[in-house]
Amino acid sequence: MLELTKPEDTALQIKKTPITDKQILGWGFIIIVQAFALGGTYYSMTSKLENAAPKSAVERLATRFDAIEEFKTKTENNLSEIRVILNPLPFQLSQLTAAINDASRRADAVDVRLDKFNEQFSGKLDTLAETMNTIRVDVARIAASSGNSPPRPASFKP
Question: How far is CA 114 from CA 7, 96, 104, 120, 136, in A?
Answer without folding.
Answer: 126, 26, 15, 10, 32
